[in-house]
Amino acid sequence: MANARLYHPPHLALFPPLTDCSCSIVPRPILATIHTDALTHNLNRARHAAHQTDATNQPLRETLNNSPRVGAPGFGMGCEAQSTAIPGGIASICNEADRPNPGCDRREGVVQRFLSSARVWAVVKANAYGHGIGAVFDALRGADGFALLDLREAEQIRALGWRGPVLLLEGVFEPRDLELCSRLSLWHAVHCDAQIEMLAAHKTQQPHRVFLKMNTGMNRLGFMPERFRAAWTRLNALPQVDEVSLMTHFSEADGARGIDAALDCFTRVTQDLPGERTLANSAALLRHPRALGDWVRPGIMLYGSAPDFPEHSIAHWQLQPAMTLATRLIATQDLRAGDTVGYGSLYTAAQPMRIGIAAVGYADGYPRHAPSGTPVLVDGVRTGLVGRVSMDMIAIDLSPAPSAHIGSEVTLWGRSAGGAVLPIDDVAHAAGTVGYELMCALAPRVPVQTV
Ligand SMILES: Cc1ncc(COP(=O)(O)O)c(C=O)c1O
Questions:
Q1: Phi, psi of 34 (to 5 degrees)
Q2: Is 333 helix (H, G, I), strand (E, B) or coil?
Q3: Quick check: CB of 307 below 6 Å from ligand 1?
Q4: Which residues contact 161 (CB under 8 A, 6 or more apart)?
Q5: Which pLDDT tens digit goes with each residue over 82-95?
Q6: b (16+ CB within 10 A) / e for 322-339
Q7: Which residues are known catalytic residues?
Q8: What pTM value is reported for the model?
Q9: Atom 8, ligand 1: residue with shortest CA distance
Q10: Is the shortest distance between the CB of 281 and ligand 1 below 6 Å?
Q11: Which of 306, 318, 293 is closest to 121 using CA atoms?
Q12: 13 vs 20, 151, 296, 323, 408, CA distance in Å?
């Protein structure tokens, strides 16, 4: 313990004790910080992108405006369905006063205002991309709804007090899930015949709002275009269904191929169908404003990662890192030319150099395959890894930070105490992966604080 105290002296302690301050156990100096100001900022960026001129979103909007209305209650623009009382004490979820976007109304003038802005689902699946639903909820509650796929996470959002829309992106997995949808008024995707069967057999007083999903080329979930209208007709006829909205998910909104073929297909098949549309993830929202539809579904951008990195960075999209992973140097070593570093001796010093050993490894979620040169900040100065990532440690070249010492702050991604930023995308790219994976891989042993 004496050594541990030496490595984590109180005057250097950035990190609060994990549990009981009076106990003699000193935690490893590693901490993830969730920045609520960044989450809110990024949500505002999403809202800004969703607020386009009518012209940019015109093809879909015209479709929507010309849509015939059908007899099911709440059909059309979707607002009547939302005004129904929700069992279990959850009240109306289409309250104009609660809604940052105007236009939950079918009257012409209001629709005109509505036309200029899509509503925003904050995608919080996978425990809010590793940030923790509880940690992000307050910062993201300015969204119009939360989209996720785990029913326990949907329960958590309701338990946190969210009374607005919640969308299950993959729909239900088994019949009893529909009971939870009825009880908690969850909207759900319908992507296959089995889910229609489940709905048809479901006994409910509470007709459901569903999002019928078309497979426009991703080939994961959704009805093929040629089967989509038959599925719509069947779904629309069910008494269990209140309103059918239309959904797809682009496979290449971030890439060179773009969304043209998928959007054309979706538009062609759905053009005379009524109901709201949701199409765009972060990449489509930022790069393809003509595909906004009525609801956009940003995920990764909310957490401060650029969906189309390295073509564009978070600076380009004016996003801020929502997660910082930080630790400290727990040792330094002076190497001679020819000395090697770490398991497998993957790195050889070409000349005398000083390296630092930081308390983070793959057991914390840091990628083991990150090679030498992967960026890292030491006391806010950008430098790089040397050698292989171990379970609990990494080695860092201290040449650019000659005054670094035991206890120096090491930022794996996010913001340093002094304000220097290391985007998670830079680290992910160096390690041959994406920001999504690093965020989601944050290990349970890493303490998390929300600021
Ligand atoms: C159906 C669906 N919509 C939206 C998103 C959010 O995507 P992104 O995080 O790229 O914005 C996802 C995430 O993969 C998704 O599966």
A1: -100, 125
A2: strand
A3: yes
A4: none
A5: 322 222 223 223 33
A6: bbbbbbbbbebeebeeee
A7: 125, 343
A8: 0.84
A9: 299
A10: yes
A11: 293
A12: 15, 39, 42, 19, 10
